[in-house]
Design a protein that fits this description.
Layout lengths: L16 E4 L10 E4 L1 H9 L10 H4 L5 H13 L3 H6 L4 H16 L17 E3 L3 E3 L4 E3 L4 E2 L3 E2 L6 E6 L2 E6 L3 E3 L1
Antiparallel strand pairs: 1-2, 3-6, 3-10, 4-5, 7-8, 8-9
Helix pairs in contact: 3-5
């Protein structure tokens, strides 16, 4: 079997496709072939530890990207015992640590109900908000489309209301 026909983590053949490491340079050397199940869990961040027991084998792969992904997943699962058991070359360990640190520092924007927000989403304002310096009030029930995320501040999003770009606290919005 070729490298691309089976999941390099759990050996499943179901819907195998390539994904890049979280801090990838886009090269094939920093990509891993994963099945639909592994991909879905990795992308959602909701990992089933029982499924990822397959990492017991994958972590010893000769493919550097597979070892790095195993390291990242063991960290996400909180399995320091398995991380400590792994052997990674210096460049592999540096890449894995970058990915773990990037994931830990990633800002997550959430509306008043705890729903995750992304660039381009539409939101609804939950209460009348006086817009300082613009001389108007953003009315409750107003839908704001194609929002942006305030850089470095998970407590605010940006959007256009009455043609004016404003920052809105996430505690006063819900995803439309």
């Amino acid at each position: 079997m070729s490298r691309s026909s089976i999941c390099e983590l759990c050996a499943s053949e179901d819907g195998v496709e390539v994904i890049e490491l979280p801090v990838s340079d886009g090269s094939d050397e920093q990509s891993v072939y994963v099945c639909a199940n592994c991909k879905g869990q990795i992308e959602s961040g909701d990992l089933d530890e029982a499924h990822f027991n397959c990492l017991n084998d994958a972590m010893w792969s000769e493919t550097p990207a597979v070892k790095v992904m195993s390291y990242i997943l063991w960290n996400t699962l909180g399995r320091q015992d398995m991380v400590d058991m792994m052997y990674l070359e210096e460049d592999e360990r540096n890449l894995a640590e970058q990915a773990v640190n990037a994931a830990a520092n990633k800002l997550v924007y959430r509306d008043s109900n705890g729903v995750e927000l992304h660039t381009g989403d539409s939101i609804v304002i939950l209460k009348d908000l006086e817009v300082k310096g613009a001389g108007f009030t953003a009315k409750r029930g107003t839908t704001v489309t194609r929002i942006g995320l305030a850089p470095g501040d998970a407590g605010h999003v940006e959007g256009r209301v009455n043609g004016t770009k404003i920052f809105i606290k996430t505690e006063f919005i819900k995803k439309a």
